[in-house]
Amino acid sequence: EVQLQAFGGGLVQPGGSLRLSCAASGFTVSKYAMSWVRQAPGNERELVASIGAAGTTVYADSVKGRFTISRDSAGNTHNTAYLQMNNLKPEDTAVYYCRVINYWGQGTKVTVSS
């Protein structure tokens, strides 16, 4: 059974950093394309970053240069994907979800505010 558990969100000041984690079970993160998607209040879900099965990364224009998606290599027992977020802005405030194929984690809330 595929399960995704996202965590690492919280309250951070503008300019700060957070690292989100997506712990996976039921599959190996290094073998599948994975994505981070966010949804701000009143907005539709937005693809933030994705990493393909071969390791190619894609980012939304709004986060390029600030966010980095990564994942554990094959054989790593943590089997986790990550989203490193630097220089956070108030407009990054949202619930962040990790996704693989059509499976979603439960979301972790990020609030950027002074």
Notable characteristics:
7-stranded mixed β-sheet; mainly beta; globular; 4-stranded antiparallel β-sheet; 114 residues
Quick overview:
This protein is an all-beta fold. The chain contains no helices and 11 strands.
How would you portray this structure in words?
This protein is mainly β and 114 residues long. The chain is built from no helices and 11 strands. Strands 2, 4, 5, 6, 9, 10 and 11 form a 7-stranded mixed β-sheet that branches. Strands 1-3-8-7 form a 4-stranded antiparallel β-sheet, with no helix packed on it. The mean pLDDT is 95.
Question: Helix count, per DSSP?
Answer: 0
Biggest sheet descriptor: 7 strands, mixed
For the CA atoms, what is the radius of gyration?
13 Å
Shape: globular
Structural class: mainly beta
How helical, in percent, are the residues?
under 10%
Number of strands: 11
Uncertain residue segments: none
SSE string, helices as H and strands as E: EEEEEEEEEEE
The overall pLDDT average reads: 95
Q: Determine the strand fraction and express it as a percent band.
A: over 45%
- Gap between N and C termini, in Å? 40 Å
